[in-house]
Amino acid sequence: MIKDEVAIIDEIQMMRDSTRGWAWTRALLGLVAEEIHLCGEEGAVELVQALMTTTGEDVEVRKYKRLTDLEVEDSALGSLDAVQPGDCIVCFSKNDIYSVSRGIEAKGREVAVIYGGLPPGTKLAQAQMFNDPDNSCKVLVATDAIGMGLNLSIRRVVFYSLIKPSVNEKGEKEMNTISVSQALQIAGRAGRYGTQYEKEGMSVNMLQILFKSYGAMYATPEPHNFSLFVFQGFVTTFKPEDLTTLKNLLSQLPEPITKAGLHPTAEQIELYAYHLPNSTLSNLMDIFVTLSTVDDSLYFMCNTEDFKFLADMIQHVPLPLRARYVFCCAPINRKMPFVCTMFLKFARQYSKNEALTLDWLCRNLGWPFASPKTILDLVHLEAVFDVLDLYLWLSYRFMDLFPAANLVRDMQGELDAMIQQGVFQLTRLLKNSETGVSSGTTSAIDEDDFAINHHKQSYLRGSKDSHPPRVGGGRLTERLLAQGLLTPNMLQELRKEWTQVSIMY
Questions:
Q1: Which residues fall within 8 angstroms of residue 284, CB to CB, at 6 or more apart?
Q2: Where does the record place the Helicase C-terminal domain (predicted)?
Q3: Are 160 and 96 in contact (CB under 8 A)?
Q4: Main-chain phi, psi angles of 498, to 5 degrees
Q5: What is residue 42's three-state secondary structure?
Q6: 120 — phi, psi (to 5°)?
Q7: For the segment 28-62, what is each residue's pLDDT rounded down to a tens digit?
Q8: Verdict on whether the full-model pTM lies above 0.85
Q9: Residue 61 class from Cβ within 10 Å (0-12 exposed, 13-18 middle, 19+ buried)?
Q10: What's the DSSP call for residue 253?
């Protein structure tokens, strides 16, 4: 086995994630390297030290202090009229993203938008537009996606809400106040060192400390000979009633991370399958979780509902157990019907031992696409981008049958450009959604059946040329379609029924 000199794991605190934490735990315990550098929250330090004690590794802890001040304002924003240049309004739902960005643009201001479902290139393009001092876009509307991996020139973070949807250990959706860790990470994006927002002035004592800390080779200058800028960030809430809660959250230290997530390995599942040859993969997972004993002083068993969901979906597809296991580990959003449909098609094609060529992929995606004209079109293009990500994820594991990785990356580049255009014109897409304008993007999908929570549901798409009468083009319809609770085919049937009822009366 080849040993690397250095490996880096970012966001190591993600070991606590109830669904995907096992991926970080496996990386930490399985990487073969001379040195492993971990980056993340201070709350993860004790757990990492405890884990490394069990493996006989040496741990060196280096703590880095924030180089700028962060001030919690005494008053809430209260209204979008109070938005200032350099503000970032943080929302925890797409609906809030849409309504806030539209409200700000209605006041004649340009807005950059960043949320988790956007491709990396689109996020970077929006970030660059907001960061550019010469660009007229001075306001950012974003989710907590800004907390990881983006350098943003934010003067003030405004929490539009402090309530965020989450999934508990049982896989149930909950609405909870954000954690101390989340509040600190998001608020900390304001006034970061090196941004354009600055405040002049610093004491001589502070200058001396800085020069000493950085090993200056020169004598400390006199105050009148030296001018230094101190960067400062601000944070507040949109609603006045949330401000006290935010101050309380930011006054605390991050919650210590006490346990790392685990997940059954392929080898363990194969062992169970040897003794229980007639059990499905989903059942094997349940049996393993029931019978296994976890060292609960350091570890917990991650939620396996997403894994079992995918396992049930492809149970009827003839696959070797190891390949079935790998497919079910794919990091996809099971709430996106189109992504799930393509996942099933990938598994079927793989089971035939037939390569998923670029031509096959384009036919099944409905490629090429038109630029989005409605929010639903944009949501669908984001889903297509996720499908291409899934293809690339599988190509690393099954190179022979997923041979078009480089071409798929090119497709992602084209798709990224379309999505960027859609996000840039977000307000127009919202208006088009309300007036029934559509590019037909979402209707390019052919039909396929797959299992959802052990019940068959069909997600049917019409042809590109079909333009049914406009019925149900409002925001509720968009939400139902985006969440997969209402399919385009179901909407078309509703339109027909509505037309018939209108004629009768």
A1: 269, 272, 273, 276
A2: 75-270
A3: yes
A4: -65, -40
A5: helix
A6: -55, -40
A7: 999 989 999 999 888 899 999 999 999 999 999 99
A8: no
A9: exposed
A10: P
